[in-house]
Amino acid sequence: MTADTVAAKPHKAKPRKTGNTGPAAWMRVHHPLAWYIFKRFLISLFLVFGVTLITFILTNLVPANPVNSILGEQEANDPEAVARMEAKLGLDKPLYEQYWLYLVRLVHGDLGESFLTKQPVTDDLKRVFPATLELGGFVFIFTILFGVLLGLYAALHHRHFADQLIRVLSLGGVSIPTFWLGAMCYYFLFYELGLFPGSGRLDSRISPPPTVTGMYTVDSIIAGDWATFGNAVWHLCLPALVLATANLSSLMRFVRSAVLESMNQDYVLAAKAKGLPSHKVVFGYILRGAAVPILNRMGLLFAGLITGSVLTESIFAWNGLGQYAFKATMALDLQGIMGVGIIIGVVYIFVNFIVDIITGFVDQRVRIQ
């Protein structure tokens, strides 16, 4: 064997040894998506614990005494009655012990008993949450459908008349206060013109469909009751219009900005230089590049619709989570307030977790960082 032959033999590099050789390092190298999802899941669990802690502390920092709201003015002046009620509610224990007992009950699905309704808070939330989910889901589908299309159209026709018109309309939609728009829609579209029903989820003459999901539109479809379905959709229109106005405008502006930023990237310019068809450039390069920020915005939009419709539900007497939160706050119902706080926090965390998973599938850069 000559020296040239020896030199020609490929040199087999030895694998470098790293400090981390455990299961976590192996998963991170060989299954980055699974590792990414696992990390996000652990972070979500930590955030849920943080939500319970913050909700409990902030609720107990309220200067008013909930016992006075429960007993009334006459019994609140009786020290013995106050002491009995505090012992019943556990308010006579130290704050850390109250929090520990609250966590133990929470793990078992017990959110306590509402001072206002005299029912378990869990049952109250099961009753009101489907109404908010129905309204928020209806608005979300409408907002995503038109917000993405109009934002994309405005970006592709940058500085044209259509772009300027969409920008002006979206700016107006974002600027209008929700409570003012709700009051105006209620007065003109219901009271003056009678075009839409003003309150409630169904007409008083119509009975709700058999409960399956708690959402009247879905339950009426399951039952095959199309008259009830039409009436439920008709009642949805006015509060959905109010909620969709600001959210649709905000999403249009965000999609337009994200698409414009993606259009200026080098890979988009290279695709145009290759002479690819315009639809391939738009859907294969521009939208794909703008997908991650748009997905994150959609997640925040959905969570906000589910948890932030207090004013709209109060104006239109929509018996959902927002109206329940408003009543619990006015009555100083601490158990109800904490239950709503937990639901809002969990919804945001869950939606963000789902968005993170979708983002990991869409963009490989996210899961390998």
TrEMBL record:
Residues 1-21 are annotated as: Disordered. CDD domains: TM_PBP2. The keyword Nuclease does not apply. Keywords: Cell membrane, Membrane, Transmembrane, Transmembrane helix, Transport. SUPFAM superfamilies: MetI-like. One of its GO terms (biological process) is transmembrane transport. PROSITE patterns: ABC_TM1. Residues 129-359 form the ABC transmembrane type-1 domain. It is found in: Cell membrane. Its main location: membrane. GO terms for cellular component: plasma membrane. It is a multi-pass membrane protein. The chain crosses the membrane at residues 41-62, 135-156, 168-189, 232-255, 298-318, 338-362. The keyword Transmembrane helix applies. It comes from the Bacteria. It holds the Pfam family BPD_transp_1. Belongs to the binding-protein-dependent transport system permease family. This is Binding-protein-dependent transporter inner membrane component. It comes from Bifidobacterium biavatii DSM 23969.
